[in-house]
Design a protein that fits this description.
This protein is α+β, with helices and mostly antiparallel strands. The protein has two domains: 46 residues; 91 residues, Glutaredoxin (3-Layer(aba) Sandwich), CATH 3.40.30. It contains six helices and four strands; from the N terminus they run αααβαβαββα. Helix 4 links the parallel strand 1 and strand 2. It is elongated and about 60 Å long.
Length: 145
Amino acid sequence: MVRAWILPMLLVLCGSAVAAGLISKGSPGTAAALLLAFLALAGVNSPLIFPRSIGAREAQRRSAVDGRPVVFWRPGCKYCVRLRIRLGRSARRLHWVNIWRDPAGAAAVRAANDGNETVPTVVVAGRPHTNPDPGWVREQLSPSV
């Protein structure tokens, strides 16, 4: 869990340092704007914007029951953030597995990607898809007609 917060905390600390330097030079407006930008980056790269992660085995079990895709992700991954943001509210309908917190999830991703931990890897009906288009993932959530 600590590893997931390293990048966001570094962004907050760097933003605070830059803002303090700008304030000392007499630019409080610029300091505030840059601090807000750093805080926004920290928020986007934090685990807070992702739905609660579950273990890979539990996600696969739930997916077998309800047919919803499983998303393997990790904090700090810009492609994971893009997927999460573009999915919007429908992201909560997926089963999310943080591969940094779940060794079985990391192993599943390596098995699907020739030994690489490439994320996001989305598993739909037992078939892995590496870095799929968010629109395609959203379509997988739609009931078949």
